[in-house]
């Protein structure tokens, strides 16, 4: 028997907007010893329904098990595994960079190259907001590193399918 290859998967989960739903979803991962890379929840276009984007590293057997277990949770309306080639996925990053009058123009230029925005300026630092793929955010950090990273926070990914296809909840 050969061991299956572990890869990164994005699951989009529609749930009823009820208290404790995030705890129930994360508890399912804990009980089954599945490792979450990120979990992001937010409102959808439909009142009373939230979308949870889950990023997990798993093999094919485990990702199937995760999908089945999520579908068993009562407030879960729909679970869709998003495919990399048909998905738009982005994360948000805020990074505080050392910048004084002498090097601030170079820091701002670096942010502009990556289509990031300067959202705060202090005498000795700037805060930059960037969105994009993990690769883009990593590349931005590599460019900013020589200036000095003071603080950094990054969100998990959110994702949607490309094109006109939507993820309307199926009737239970």
Topology:
Blueprint: E1 7-16, H1 21-31, E2 36-43, E3 49-58, H2 60-72, E4 76-82, E5 87-98, H3 104-113, E6 117-122, E7 125-132, H4 134-144, E8 149-154, E9 158-161
Antiparallel strand pairs: 1-3, 1-4, 2-3, 5-7, 5-8, 5-9, 6-7
How would you describe this structure to a colleague?
- The chain is of the alpha+beta class and 172 residues long.
- It folds into two domains: 7-82, ACT domain (Alpha-Beta Plaits, 2-Layer Sandwich), CATH 3.30.70; 88-158, 2-Layer Sandwich (Alpha-Beta Plaits), CATH 3.30.70.1150.
- Helices cover 26% and strands 41% of the residues.
- Strands 5, 6, 7, 8 and 9 form a five-stranded antiparallel sheet that branches. Strands 2-3-1-4 form a four-stranded antiparallel sheet, covered by helices on one side.
- A hairpin with a 5-residue loop joins strand 2 and strand 3.
- The longest helix has 13 residues, at 60-72.
- The two termini are 38 Å apart.
- The mean pLDDT is 92.
- Pathway: Amino-acid biosynthesis; L-valine biosynthesis; L-valine from pyruvate: step 1/4; Amino-acid biosynthesis; L-isoleucine biosynthesis; L-isoleucine from 2-oxobutanoate: step 1/4.
- GO terms for molecular function: acetolactate synthase activity; acetolactate synthase regulator activity.
- One of its GO terms (cellular component) is cytosol.
